[in-house]
Amino acid sequence: MEIKKRIRSISAIAMLLVLAVPSLCLADGLSIDTGQTKAVIVMEAGSAQVIFSKNADEKLNCGGLVRLPALLYAAECMDNGKISGDTQITVSPEAAKVGGATAFLKAGESLKAEDAMRAAVMITAGDATTALAEACSGGHEAAVREINARLIELGITQEISSIDGKGTDFSAEDMAKLGAALAASKTYREYSGLYLDELIHENGSRTELVNQNRLIKSLDGCFSGSTGSSAEAGYCGVFMVKRNGAVFIAAVIGAKDSKTRFAVASKAVDTASAAVRVKTPVKKGDIVVENAPVLGGIAKTVSLAAAEDVTLLVWDNEEPNVLINANEEYQAPIRAGDKAGAIEYSFEKSGMIIKTDLVFTIDVPLAGWGDFIGLCIDKWVHR
User: Measured between alpha carbons, how far is 48 from 346 in angstroms, rounded to an integer?
Assistant: First the structure.
């Protein structure tokens, strides 16, 4: 199919009906044996396009994965320098009391943030995760507020009432969104790839840390992941896998046992990644519109570039329609990096729409009288 291109003014964008379909399954005919599981999803991380889903929107008990919002918050705080690996944190009584998977931290114990992070990531330790989140925010209630704000940014409607997320149900789709955000965290990736380590406590005692994500060793391309389980939730996991230049996120909720959890996740990733073709038609900084006219500026034209990479999953070799929304001309002053339009890719069969902003590549200040006089002299000299 030949790619169709159309250009419209930015003022017309508001008239376009852009479908928000983050949970759409592109591969409607894809068949995956999900065994005895409550919910399964496979999503491409960069575009949030869903390739396969089973019961992915139902809110369910996710066992220890309920701590992932707090873990994401702490990892991103370390990513952006709010705390460093050498930051000394003190375990609060509330953190020490968190049940489930634990690093056996004691109230009042002091340890480095990097040591707490290893335990939080490798074994989903609730005490370490809570202590980290409290250190990042300055207190329990402040951490809960900031974590909930991050959930809203991710398009997750659930709220937690405590850092450890106790009593909160999430869907497989929610878990996939958290997984995609975690996969983008340098801190999380650094520790989730470790398989065996230990935590040395302040008093000299040791806690063995064994990563429960067996897929790191057995599934081609698996570089990160978290697991959790409980009697009510069953066996759950979120796994990040690099394939064909893309990152696939698989979330499994409520498997009957650990073996089923890993087998279903592996099969889902293998089948889903083989069923689609990954394309990156535009990368961040690529020029999409060249030499758009500028009125009243020192420069006469400005180019527009993609603000972010665009990752597309092509199903049944369907080529996308391409729509470039840009003005016919722009008014100075212009600042590099400001939004100037958008480029949109749409698929007729699935209805999926992926788009990214277009931004100005250079500053274009307003032209003053001196600039106009200079321009007139230049034209007169060179006529």
Answer: 14
Tell me the sheet residues that pair with 285. none
The type of residue at 267 is K
Residue 211 clears pLDDT 70, i.e. is over it: yes
321 vs 208: CA distance, rounded Å: 53
C-alpha of 88 from chain center: 28
User: Which of 78, 99, 113 lies closest to 199 in space, CA to CA?
Assistant: 113
Contact 309, 343 (CB under 8 A): no
Mean pLDDT of 189-212: 95
Quote the distance between the C-alpha of residue 231 and its chain's center. 29
Report in angstroms the alpha-carbon separations of 63 from 227, 234, 278.
9, 7, 33
Q: Which residue has the tokens 């479908």?
A: 19
Look at residue 30 in the predicted model and tell me its pLDDT.
74
The answer to whether 41 touches 48, Cβ cutoff 8 Å, is no
pTM for this one?
Answer: 0.80
Taking only the tens place, the pLDDT of each residue in 10-43 is: 333 222 223 333 334 445 567 888 999 999 999 9
227: enclosing H helix or E strand = strand 222-230
H/E segment holding residue 343? strand 339-346
pLDDT band at 374 (very low <50, low <70, confident <90, very high): low
- Long-range CB pairs of 266-270 (<8 Å, 24+ gap) are 266/215, 266/218, 266/219, 267/32, 267/33, 268/32, 268/34, 268/40, 268/42, 268/52, 269/42, 269/219, 269/222, 269/239, 269/241, 269/243
Longest Cα separation, the chain:
86
For residue 63, give the DSSP letter.
G
pLDDT tens digits, residue range 238-258?
999 999 888 999 999 999 999
The stretches of the chain forming alpha helices (DSSP H) are 68-79, 93-96, 113-122, 126-137, 140-153, 172-183, 186-192, 215-218, 258-275, 369-381
